[in-house]
Amino acid sequence: MYREQIDAYIDAHKEQLIDDVMKLVRIDSQRTQEEPGKPYGEGPAEVLEAAKELMDSYGFAVRNYENRVVTGDFNEKEKQLDILAHLDVVPVTKDWTVTEPFKPVIRDGKIYGRGTADDKGPAMAALYAMKAIKDLGIELDYNVRLILGSDEECGSSDLVYYYGIEKEAPMSFTPDADYPVINIEKGHFSKKFHAAFEDCEALPKIVKIQGGDKVNVVPANAKAVILGLEEQAALDAAKKAENETKVKFTVTKNQEEIVITAKGVAGHASTPEVGNSALTALLQLLAGLEAAPSQGFDRIRALAELFPHNDYYGKGMGVDMEDEISGKLTMNLGVFQYSPTSLSGQFDSRVPICGTEENVTRVGKKNMEEAGLTMEEGPMTPPHHVPGDSVFVQTLLESYETYTGIKGKPLAIGGGTYVHGLERGVAFGCMVPEVDNHMHGDNEFMDIDMLVTSTKIFADVIVKLCKK
Ligand SMILES: [Zn+2]
């Protein structure tokens, strides 16, 4: 019954909303060196202060948590809903063409500038949703708190600090990802491993392997150096492996050394099946060579069995599993290096909600040990799940449908959002799959219609959840 009033208010305050987004975008809030009282540097502290001033001037009770987080409370009643957004931004390149990253402009119904979509625009949408309700004199029976952090892009230590002081609300959402609602985030099982062994003089022998740069990326490049191997044997093995794996191999002879380079296709660890790992293909090739027996070569062959090429789902490690709502476990061997006396590497596995310490961490550790590899200690980051049929998720979906006309259903993703660590948090907005807003890239923008619609959706949600 408040909907028409709220919508009219938001339409009437669109220019002011845009101005406030641009005000925050003008502050370069990339994380820099820590300074006294400014744990993430000058920019993040400055943007938090600017947001605090806005919230204060709109009548909300504000608090600054040591320049890591600022909050604005709607009222002093029992807390029902937290909205979490962040005001730090990722680094910029010099390749922006529409405008400079921190000089926002409006073109064709879009605001361009670093942070417009991630996450200053959505943060201001949440603030204006609260402001609309307040200015219209609509009373809420419960509190809604806007929590604005400044370290989302570099590890979310802002929230660790905040939740060391404050309790989690019964419901939380972050407009820092996609519509409709992300209610399932897979767990994260990413571990380093290593082994040490005796050098062995016998030839042919593998003296070096190097593959991958980042653990969360499917390696597109890998390389091995072998001593005492016939060039023809290397060429034959490369041809066979290329047929089997579709990874491109190049063999070169450098005096006594044979160098094999592998070129695959990169991909994100949460969707490894879109890539083609140069590293696992190279391990498969090497494991099939007629190398002299050695402890090191045994480890390479064991590793090729733990991480078989084209096994994106952890079968080799014995941890393959899936469930209906969150899908399959994924596995990526992201980085690896080998020398005649040691090896080390790290894998990145995304775990569906059926995964536990028992059936993932312990099984992986045991199977690595049997292969002569030592996996680093410690639990995995457990999966995150807020039931899709809960009142909270259903309310979000209903408001989304009302304003977009699109039937919404909950989503499961492999990556982690700002609320991964919360028991009752979901991601809600503001991206839609049809629009690529260049988040983290050049010429990032926020679509103004989407900004306004999101503000209305958030206001609708707040009223439904915080008014009896
Ligand atoms: Zn973000």
TrEMBL record:
GO biological process, one term: L-arginine biosynthetic process
Keyword Protease: yes
Superkingdom: Bacteria
InterPro entries: ArgE/DapE_CS (IPR001261), Bact_exopeptidase_dim_dom (IPR036264), M20A_pepV-rel (IPR010964), Peptidase_M20 (IPR002933), Peptidase_M20_dimer (IPR011650), Peptidase_M20A (IPR050072)
Reported cofactor(s): Zn(2+)
EC number: 3.4.13.-
Family: Belongs to the peptidase M20A family.
Protein name per UniProt: Beta-Ala-Xaa dipeptidase
